[in-house]
Design goal:
The protein has 386 residues and is an alpha+beta fold. The protein folds into 2 domains: 1-120 and 307-386, Rossmann fold (3-Layer(aba) Sandwich), CATH 3.40.50; 128-304, Up-down Bundle (Glutathione S-transferase Yfyf (Class Pi), Chain A, domain 2). It contains 13 helices and 16 strands. It has helices at residues 38-50, 109-116, 130-133, 136-150, 152-176, 185-221, 240-246, 248-254, 275-278, 281-303, 320-331, 348-353, 377-385; strands at residues 3-13, 16-22, 26-31, 70-78, 84-91, 98-101, 104-105, 121-124, 227-232, 265-270, 273-274, 308-311, 335-340, 355-360, 363-369, 372-375. A 7-stranded mixed β-sheet has the order 8-12-13-3-14-15-16, with helices on both faces. Helix 11 links the parallel strand 12 (308-311) and strand 13. Helix 5 (152-176) crosses helix 6 (185-221) and helix 5 crosses helix 8 (248-254). The protein starts with a strand and ends with a helix. It binds adenosine-5'-diphosphate and magnesium ion.
Amino acid sequence: MTSYLRALRLVNFRNYADDTVLLKPGLNVVVGDNAQGKTNLLEAVAFAVTGSSPRTTNDPEVVRWGADFARIEARIATEGSGQERKVAVGYAPGQKKRLTVDGAPAPSLASYAAGGAGVRAVNFFPDDIRIVKGAPSDRREFLDGLLSTLRPSYARATGEYAKAVQQRNQLLRRIRDGFSSERTLSTWDRKVVDLGEQLLRGREEAMPVLDEHFASSLRALYGPEKAAVRYSYSVTPDEYAEALREAHGADIERGATSVGPHRDDFEVSLGGVDLITFGSQGQQRLATLALKFAARDHVRGATGEDPILLFDDVMSELDGRRREFLAGYFLESTQAVISTTNLEYFGEEILRRAQVIRISGGAVMETTTDGVAERVAEQRGSFRTA
Ligand SMILES: Nc1ncnc2c1ncn2[C@@H]1O[C@H](COP(=O)(O)OP(=O)(O)O)[C@@H](O)[C@H]1O
Ligand SMILES: [Mg+2]
């Protein structure tokens, strides 16, 4: 079973008023000048299949200025079955998000994002380089995001764990200020450990798989040096409960929980060198790409389905050899949507086999498939009739 996104309708999403984009399996290239809506379009695809923006946690941002709601509808086709799933995400500031699958409300955002929409996505935005270059929280976010698309229970555990740590921290400060006694801490310790262990188990399971795929992806993208990712614990699961107990004094003083998965990190290395601290910009960018490819491999291994690849402006910073490698990689994926300002980054032969979507000012101007350009007016109706 292979699913892909066949059509997307954007209503009041970012700079799109109301437009429809038809997508093909394989490579789709979104081309346009700067500030026309390429990134917004990729964001909209992610919004449709996960229910959230990968670029912001502040939902009102995606609503078109001056509009009072945003809505994305998508048709997800399963190859060979002739069947199609209709999904929609509606959002009006101040109201709960509305997620529907074939007209029925999705049970939860977590289940919608973890396959409920019918397809998953792995995306790359230029800012993602912070996964390799940035703070431990950026790497944890990457890991938790990936695991949440695989299992809604993981997403729930992440949310509940964060809340439990926050509540424990509040209590720590109350104890410090003399409003509570230290004895009350043990209840929160237990809760934090229970939830934290779920996170650690999920991450421990994923790490070796990611490490293997990361190493082979970076070998293809960079060279023969051995690349690796390795989890680094603030405390191991065996010592978790005890370490939390032992930290009482220090935690009360700081008013913060010092050990647990919210303090963990993972190392990224190439040829034994720590890329987070010593990597060049170029190495960090390639390592970020390799991590995204590893995420795709992991999703495929765990679910049996290839996720959609959404890669924003990935070609501009690469040399010719790597561009060629990436173009081939995208062409052979179930579905990839790649944005660029410059079609010349893709070879002629590649473009013949791809679909090219030309956009300008928040609207689709033209779609070219098999070398044949189609005006958009004829396509718009297809959304309603399909
Ligand atoms: N909520 C919004 N409503 C209307 N326009 C927006 C909104 N958010 C961003 N934009 C506009 O969208 C344009 C950028 O689109 P973007 O997809 O980032 O362009 P690019 O083609 O360079 O990737 C900018 O002009 C920005 O001002
Ligand atoms: Mg952009």
